[in-house]
Design brief:
This protein is α+β, with helices and mostly antiparallel strands. It is built from 5 helices and 6 strands. The protein has a 6-stranded antiparallel β-sheet with strand order 1-2-6-5-4-3, with helices on one face. It comes from Chitinophaga ginsengisoli.
């Protein structure tokens, strides 16, 4: 009886250690985002939170260093936030549904510092939203499902 209890605890603790070891930056989805979007993100980007639904969409909230913001904006075709971007972003939609913490949603109450970049290619679409004042960057990438069906051209 004691042997079975010990084995159960050993298996549980081993599984827990393996699970916890997967929660580091080496499992970040940033390499996937860079590969799919072909957008050069700064190497010193900070991860605030990330998600991957396993089918259809992955992304996260990140922070750029102040010294990288101007360069990042000039290398990419960002636009001021408009109604189309508000309708496309899933961060606030999922935040309202309780699927994202409120701290991870895009602060649309003050859009004066927000810019966005939308693109699509080869069955993928993406939306980058940047707060040029704080350096917060929200990235959403939609990708094909398990049957190979890609997202619509617009989010």
């Amino acid at each position: 009886m004691k042997k079975a209890y010990f084995q159960y605890r050993l298996v549980f603790i081993t599984g827990l250690v393996i699970f916890m070891s997967c929660q580091n930056d080496s499992n970040s989805i940033l390499p996937f985002i860079r590969r799919v979007t072909k957008i050069s993100l700064p190497n010193n980007i900070s991860i605030i939170s990330e998600f991957d639904q396993g089918e259809l969409e992955a992304g996260g909230k990140y922070r750029l260093q102040q010294k990288d913001i101007r360069s990042f904006l000039s290398k990419n075709n960002f636009h001021p936030i408009d109604q189309q971007c508000r309708d496309m972003s899933h961060f606030n939609l999922m935040g309202k549904a309780g699927l994202f913490p409120p701290a991870d949603t895009i602060p649309l109450s003050d859009t004066s510092h927000l810019e966005y970049l939308y693109g699509c290619k080869e069955g993928n679409s993406w939306l980058f939203t940047l707060n040029e004042k704080s350096g917060e960057l929200w990235i959403e990438v939609q990708y094909p499902d398990f049957q190979g069906q890609g997202p619509a051209r617009n989010f």
